[in-house]
Amino acid sequence: MHLTWLDSNSWLLEIGGKRILLDPWLVGKLTFSNLDWLFKGTRPQERPIPENIDLILLSQGLEDHAHPPTLQQLDRKIPVVASLSAAKVVQKLGYTSVTALTHGETFRFNHQVEIKATPGSLIGPNLVENGYLLKELESGLTLYYEPHGTHDPQIKQAAPVDVVITPLIDLALPLVGPIIKGTDSALEVAKWLQPQVMLPTAAGGDVIFEGLINKFLQAVGSVEEFRLSLAKNNLTTQVIEPLPGDRIELQLNKRALAI
Question: Could you tell me whether strands 218-220 and 177-180 are parallel, antiparallel, or unpaired per DSSP bridges?
Answer without folding.
Answer: unpaired
